[in-house]
């Protein structure tokens, strides 16, 4: 049964501030023009990009033909005993399938990491019943290409024909399509090229891996189709218009952060998907909305949100929520996509480009030319099993402990700034590090985000360089016990992981943002020491 999709502005003051923007969007017929794929909505400078990025508005119709293809392939695979699906993809190629399958309760192994231990864990599953979906819009994503090469070798070593186990999702005419076809991969799906990655949830990128894993993708499209009339209507009751107006009005008042918490939606991990949508779409030209996913409506940052943040519930407007968005998964995806594009119009930015993403990739590629992913770095100090690395003048020379370095990083944040925790670790075995987000938020008084590297580079990385320049950054890297070669490439996974961390840190430092890197020389004891150091910080008043 389809759940009615809605956006409720629960804060009366915000509702009043949003009302003129609601009327502006209605009078401009912005919602219906968006549904009609009008590329002029965001101004002349955005028109060229928007003209090739708006096919997502009708995916609930145009993706229907995929369902039968997916169902047929899934039945074929199951007939052969191939019931374990591994998805190699980053950003928009992994976030949507992950939330779709997690909500449906179907198993999907998501590989969006360069950590050797996590990749090895995926390899040590039952290869005899495994198929790999290699998903990349550009067809050149370095992480995904590395996973493809590693799995090809693993299948071959087990006497399995790799081509029969590889399924591709990519844009037409990409290098990955060529590779898939020339290698005789089992199936190559090409997606609509006029859909950007972060708007691709209802395209082949979202539907193929989720459907092969057993999720009801036809139902997902049904839910989106049922919502389309309301989000495309030029009416002040349109939930996408109301959500866009609320977020934009809050931004005008200084609330450039959007704190996201689930309030009983029944959807698993939605904030992780919408994080990329908001950050990459709005975080540019020195403005934008920073999404801050948190644990629940009682979490630090949500329950304690100040004037720089808008608490938004995924589900009913519970607790401190200023806004609540409620509905089925397919309906909420379309609601947030429409609202984000409309917010881009109100903010005066192009919601379909990502001008600052390439800088970190270029820096990482440069470091890969050297040994081990970059030059050996001398730590500023060593505290137990943690090396302290910092560049620039924000850290005083006398700092010798992790707690002192963390306090210095927090103090370096400007008024109404934010703290971004970036963990280049194994998000399965090192999952305990996620406790740092609420602990640091509580003790710093700053809005605090948490991202796994390198996947956050495909999500919030654009905002960090292009959005409001008031962030401070905590990178956590760790020693690797057993590395893994990438077949046909001159680097290992740990080298790639290190280059990505150092490269992103370089780009942030070039923008005069404080970056603290804590390297765990022993991951197990280092994590314990790091959590203890955070707990030793005084709680912000």
Write structural notes for this entry:
The protein has 541 residues and is α/β, with parallel strands linked by helices. It folds into three domains: 6-29 and 234-327 and 334-347, no CATH class; 57-220, Rossmann fold (3-Layer(aba) Sandwich); 356-536, 3-Layer(aba) Sandwich (Rossmann fold). The chain has 20 helices and 16 strands. The protein has helices at residues 12-27, 30-35, 44-50, 59-62, 64-79, 95-104, 116-123, 142-157, 175-182, 204-212, 217-231, 239-252, 270-282, 329-347, 357-368, 402-411, 436-444, 461-466, 493-510, 523-536; strands spanning 6-9, 84-88, 109-111, 130-136, 166-170, 187-190, 257-262, 290-293, 309-314, 323-326, 381-383, 386-390, 418-424, 447-452, 471-478, 515-520. The chain has a six-stranded mixed sheet, sandwiched between helices. A five-stranded mixed sheet has the order 1-10-9-7-8. The chain has a five-stranded parallel sheet with strand order 3-2-4-5-6, with helices on both faces. Helix 8 (142-157) links the parallel strand 4 (130-136) and strand 5. Helix 12 crosses helix 14 (329-347) and helix 15 packs across helix 19 (493-510). The longest helix is centred in the middle third of the chain and has 19 residues, at 329-347. The protein is globular and about 60 Å long. The protein starts with 5 loop residues before the first strand and ends in a 5-residue tail after the last helix. The model has no long low-confidence stretch (mean pLDDT 96).
